[in-house]
């Protein structure tokens, strides 16, 4: 006896027409033609059933603050940082939590159930940390939230930056962050990487640094991060986020750098939407787009996970909490249009991101929590093309969000009366 059976599901690995049995909040069977009784049956009608989406890089403390106290006129990274500095003294715990909860509602509707957010620790009052710790507790029943102590204004550059980050970790923040390229000098940047990795090793915490988010090919803090990862035995527990300077580095240096990153088991976290929006702003033409070398990193066996980074905040006025929108853009800007490319891109917002966050029990496997998303698409390739409706989102076997399928009624002579947007119009499998 199952609590729930999802019938006729297509899985991300290509299996089609599979039944998924769920009991006690866990997946207890994955097989064809599951002959059993269930308290509830959902017919997936040969739609894609995926594990939930995972966002390994976000700024929850800034989300939905667009227009406060003013708009980012230039649309640049540096004006966004300055604008956040204007807004920060006015922040309250209540307002931060309210905006973040509203975003989390959007996230759930999109099947996004795991998020790592960077929390600004530059203001010694640490209102942002208090708010995000409160948020983490509030949303625990439906979203797993990891917090990164992020010295937005620089670990050394900000007044009391060192003490504030340590206090944030003492308050219960999960991950050590940094922003070495925003320190006053390259030497201070390298020094901050060394200090922060040492703190992480001493506390037994992971590391996730904004690293080389710049067009400057000489910004090479990822090299220091890889070296310090090995020095402190942090392999597999360290992420380099953004890594946009790799877009501008010469190929010979990158041929040395990527093996160093692989040796250190660095998780690479590009943010396609934000990286192509903010980078290359000093270029005329040809204009660099800024996203790091995704194909080459994947080919070297490096775990690549895509982040959303921002939604309607001082840095990015767009966004919807949809990780498929992130992946859809990555297909284009990384020029990864092959079938195998697209399947790898889908992994970058699911399995790879789960690995970057160290999630346990993630994925479609017997014994794992029944955290699932049913999409109005037939397979992962179509999901990337369509960014389809999330028909149902399940958390531990319970449906926590439902959306009606997108159907269009036509009144055209000799043509179908209805179009289902999730059906491949070619009539052929996408892979």
From TrEMBL:
Keywords: Hydrolase, Metal-binding
Biological process terms in GO annotation: cytosine catabolic process
Stretches assigned to the Amidohydrolase domain: 40-400
NCBIfam families, sorted: PRK07572.1
Protein name: Cytosine deaminase
Xref: InterPro entries: Amidohydro_3 (IPR013108), Metal-dep_hydrolase_composite (IPR011059), Metal_Hydrolase (IPR032466), Metallo-hydrolase_Enzymes (IPR052349)
Gene Ontology MF term list: cytosine deaminase activity; isoguanine deaminase activity; metal ion binding
EC number(s) recorded for this UniProt protein: 3.5.4.1
Record carries keyword Hydrolase: yes
